[in-house]
């Protein structure tokens, strides 16, 4: 009897550090990782490659990292904020000088037989840094919001110098999401992205550009502390952005323009810039309701879709598992995002809440853009699908972020100031 009691106490002490974890979130992520390995195996079945085993091995390592971080108090990171920021920028700087180039971007550092992508890990680094900056003083003032943008600007510029447009866009989504959760005025966030919208609309429709500029003038007048100077500033920025957007558009090379606009009409260049999207849509459409079956998709098995094991992995799922399988994937991502929001809402402090919402912003943006580009609703960018696409640095980054969120949940408590109620 004494021995049985001792065994129970020993077992309880072993599981104690993880008993408060969000197990539903963890199980859903494991399911996505397993499904990703199956899809990658199917894509590479006729090529004799074994990236799917590396995907699962990396996922196993990532799971261990998640469990280790989950039992470690996340708020200890507050004392290391600027060390993390310095390491993040230093790693991105190293890439510029000794990085390895692939697919037109110098984004990797070769360590032995492994290629490490520092810009992926920089996402988590910036989530921690921005959460630390805003956990005591929220972004409800212009100076504080400008401080956050200045902190983000340094790693963002280093990433764009590689150049890595996809990761740069993810950085923007993380920053905007965390500013919103940090009580920044939503009108300020719209004004922040308005130059980009103005630059696009100027090249698409002048009436829409004028209407957008007028709307931004009104928004500047209503939301900025200085009404008339704010309105005048919003008008100037959007007018200038339209002209600069047109100038920059003319400076782009033909293939760069095609990558941005061919998703609207890929048949204009079916053997060039529109090839990826055309083949991806054919594959997803061929899956119909139930799919052709795992390892049975013709587009997938005959290698019609380039980079299918990374950026276009969703097309393999659509073809071989059909509409039902695709919806299951979307439901799994919905569960992940729902749990992240709940954890952000119920964190004991602002720091944990901002970390969870930063991870939420990162995952939501990557899922929407990746799936959008495979079905023709978004331009083709190098953004992987979390936990499904092949990519060791990206997969480890996602598990690292998951570990931080699980730590926030594991060490949640009653009371404590939360940013949004």
Q: Which features does this protein show?
A:
single chain, 421 residues, mainly alpha, 2 domains, three-stranded antiparallel beta sheet, 16 helices
Could you explain the architecture of this structure?
69% of the residues lie in helices and 3% in strands. With 421 residues, the protein is mainly α. Helix 5 runs parallel beside helix 7. Mean pLDDT is 85; it is low at 9-15 and 414-421.
The chain-level structural class is: mainly alpha
Form type: globular
Low-confidence stretches: 9-15, 414-421
Any idea what the radius of gyration is?
23 Å
Strand content: under 5%
What is the residue-mean pLDDT, rounded to a whole number? Answer: 85
Number of strands: 3
Q: Measure the end-to-end span.
A: 49 Å
| Total number of helices | 16
Taking the sheet with the most strands, its summary is: 3 strands, antiparallel
Please bin the fraction of helical residues: 55-70%
Major beta sheet, strand line-up: 1-2-3
How are helices and strands ordered from N to C? HHHHEEEHHHHHHHHHHHH
The number of distinct structural domains comes to 2
Q: Summarize this, please?
A:
The chain is mainly α and 421 residues long.
Which helices and strands occur, and which strands form pairs?
Blueprint (H helix, E strand, L loop, with lengths): L1 H14 L7 H21 L7 H20 L10 H18 L1 E3 L2 E7 L2 E3 L1 H17 L7 H19 L4 H17 L4 H19 L1 H18 L3 H25 L2 H8 L13 H12 L11 H4 L11 H34 L3 H26 L16 H19 L11
Antiparallel strand pairs: 1-2, 2-3
